[in-house]
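Example: Glutamate pyruvate transaminase.
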Amino acid sequence: MLSARTCLNAKSQLGVFKLTLKASSIVSASTSSATLRIVVMPSISNLQQYNNYSTSPKPAPKLTLDDVNENILKAKYAVRGRIPMRAEELKAQLKKDPASLPFKKIINANIGNPQQLDQKPLTFYREVLSLLQHPELLDEADETLLSLYKIDSIQRARKLLEEVGGSVGAYSQSQGVQGIRETVASFITKRDDGEIAYPEDIFLTAGASAAVSYILSMLCKGPSTGVLIPIPQYPLYTASLALNNSKPLPYYLREEENWSTDPEEIEEVVQDAIKKGVKPTCLVVINPGNPTGAILSVNAIESIFEIAAKYGIVVIADEVYQENIFKGSKFNSMKKVLRNLQKVHHGKFDNVQLASLHSISKGVSGECGQRGGYMELVGFSHEIRQVFLKLASISLCPVVTGQALVDLMVSPPKPGDASYEQDQQQRNHIHEALEERATKLFETFSRLEGIECRKPQGAMYLYPKLDLPFKAIQEASHKEMEPDEFYCSELLEHTGICTVPGSGFGQVPGTYHLRTTFLPPGTEWVDAWEKFHREFYDRYRD
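Written out as structure tokens, the predicted fold is:
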């Protein structure tokens, strides 16, 4: 008879094990030289203990960086990199203790975010948007509605609501609303002096960044794919190439020639890539330039198409700053230049493929947070357009309010419309304010020791060259920073001005730059920068 609590020890060919059981649980047991067999009828308490044990094992480990897609870890985006992250920390510190730092606020000159930095939204945009978001207002009596909104805002809202199917909360077609694409095509045709654009070639996107993602994800097939990018460049391109595990092929812009291109160097980059087994698939052109603020001449654009035609390279024209043009400068769209080449040189440029990008984030719109833009495909086959449509379909559709803003951007109030005069006043004010701020900052840099800056022609940025003292370069090395990053870090810590080091955009080895917007209002921050710069050079003077 088993005791109330029995330990059974058994030895078999399978090993040694020990069981402790309650006598009341055992129904039968038998042993042999090879096996020990026990049939157990567990009590309720035993079953509960077993269930508790089986459902609470040692937790599986959390994700580590080893589990993350290595292409994401490789991607870098300096515009929101280490210095902007430090700026956010300082902003939080100021909120808790306003007197804890030698400045009162952070000046975010690191990113082209107009409405964060004083640029007011256009009234016409906001009137139409509010009616789209709350269409019940359109049911109000005419006299009530007209006391709140101008008649052309009301008419545009009704037209857009009809085109989107009655609500901006519903999905649209993946390529974008047909009526809005027709409006974009009309805008491009007018801009390019009658060179016809077709709605089926237009893809509405969630900003120009989404269009870049479409193009690169479609054409990048791995490390054997190369994409030519201008240096300095907008970091979106190198980051996107890292995500797609493809190779950036940098070509340097000529600073001494106001950041123009060098066609001979570009062709050398192409030929060198081919020799190394890398296929140059795309060539990126940012015009007007980011971060340089320069505008390419027609001759420079033509030379790019010469190379594209010769090697079968797709041209990506990032033209999101086409509305930010200063007096005395002229923007020529790449499509217009291509069409003129095709007329003069019959057949030579017929197979050139061009993807042109535009956005509501820049210009006088400044609607960065609304995420709207478009891409025009020029020279692509129907089959390739269908692949773009597949990519767009995976994302369902672009933001519908962003699409509506694209419509407003490319078709603003016209002379005779109720909103026209106010809209023109607001647009002129934005243009004049930006050019005035750019001039002020440029003139300040021009009189400072150790800074060389090209006069801006457009966009939202200056990209000055820094001739840093050797002691400053040594100090940067001690802090494990690039020299221009060290300068930008010190500028932030002493003045609250947040900029982006040139090392985040790429630059000729041995040179140092930074990018700053001229969006912030007023002159106090410029004066603070000038004071800091003089003190910095005195501190580290050789």
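The chain has 18 helices and 18 strands.
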